[in-house]
Design goal:
Chain lengths: ~170, ~325
Amino acid sequence: MSDQEVFKERAHGPVTRPGDLPAHDAHGHDHAHDDAHAGHGGIGKYLLVFLALCALTTMSFLTYSPLWPWRSEPQVGWAFMMAVSCTKAMLVVLFFMHVFWEANWKYVLTIPAAMMAIFLAIMLVPDVGMRNRMVSQERALHMARGSDVKLLEHAAEAKLPKEQAGH
Amino acid sequence: MSAPAISLPHGHDSHDGHGHHGHVTLQYQPGLPLSRGKLIMWLFLSTEIMFFAALLGSYIVLRFGAAVWPKPHHVHLSEPIGAFNTFVLICSSVTVVLALEAARANKAGLAKLWMLLTLLLGMLFLGVKAYEYQAKFSHGIYPAAPRGLVYEKPDLYYGSAVRARLGEPAIIDRLKELDDTPVERLTSEQAAARSRLQQVRAMVASPEQQAFDLAVVADQVMPLPTEGADGGHGGHANGLNDVFPWLRLPVVIPGGNMWASTYFLLTGFHAIHVLVGLIVFAILLLYRLDRSQAGKIENAGLYWHFVDLVWIFLFPLLYLF
């Protein structure tokens, strides 16, 4: 494949040549299809991505090890794990889902969907995320609070009267 | 007519029965340079992105908006099991990619082998998931009210629920049986738990009961594992509910009910997606997976990678946060 052709492939993706109905794909003999996929993939590349994914998964556990310096600030660990997850997601989308080699149509589908997804999550914040800012007294009485966790922790330290007597 | 400038699609109706008259050829330019099947799959996946974004977004917003959220160990989540399942799904993503490559190279046997491996890995994932669900159910954590044993705080409602459970005829019989059992026939753990249970029964029934007593009761029934106690996992083994599984006393997990709702909704919808993927793979296995089926394998693979993608976010959000 000459450079010119490679450029064309990258610019237009797996082109269905004029006259080729997309429906022809199902019947094999789709040369355009074969050509388009000859340039990428390769089992070595997939195994590399696989190893990277495994390494990233173990990296999420780094936040649990004693080596992790920000144990008192969980937010740092959360941000780190989300970064790791996004990297893994990008690897899967780009290489396993072949998006890296696809034509520009990929942006038409993924960008609006991603934007809608982000808006959707943001729009949940006022009603759902801030629901505990103003609650009725009745609800405040019945919902769990940080003080309940403290109470249970104290209870775990305290022993039953008989156990105390035994010691 | 020489040098046809326009070509009609071969399957066009106007050709039928008209012999040579159909040599007019039209140039056909598809709207997007990809097959119909793949286009539909990507459109479907973009709706799936929004579907899971809504679920994950509500989870995050609920979690960070909550006054208390249980730690993973409070709800008996095991990180190694979750990590193992992550590994299984990543492996299955690789095998489905390899199946596609084999099919494109027209190696039908190899493609079928990889596809079968994908199916088995997917089943392994669901098996591990079922085991995890069982661990939740056995601790009384259910997504809905009638079977769930989770109370938010050790208040009067919790105390009366414990009393009600201890007053059920079947439990009264079992308790009597336990009280009458000679100490020699109990293990040392059971004997100790029996004396703790007797004290708990007295505390719950006591008219001078105080808020702290109920917290002690909750801690005896199912202690919340403390942070950092050798992986944080050993703590809850000697709770009364664990020593006497028939007891099934109500437990206190602050924030546990909202946690259960989101956990079962997220992992449940994900498991349904895995199940659908497995059905698709099972159907594909009926075919000879040569080059002509590569398009189908690619579309099934796209779906499967998306399911993997969702788990990549679910795993840290549920198990590690």
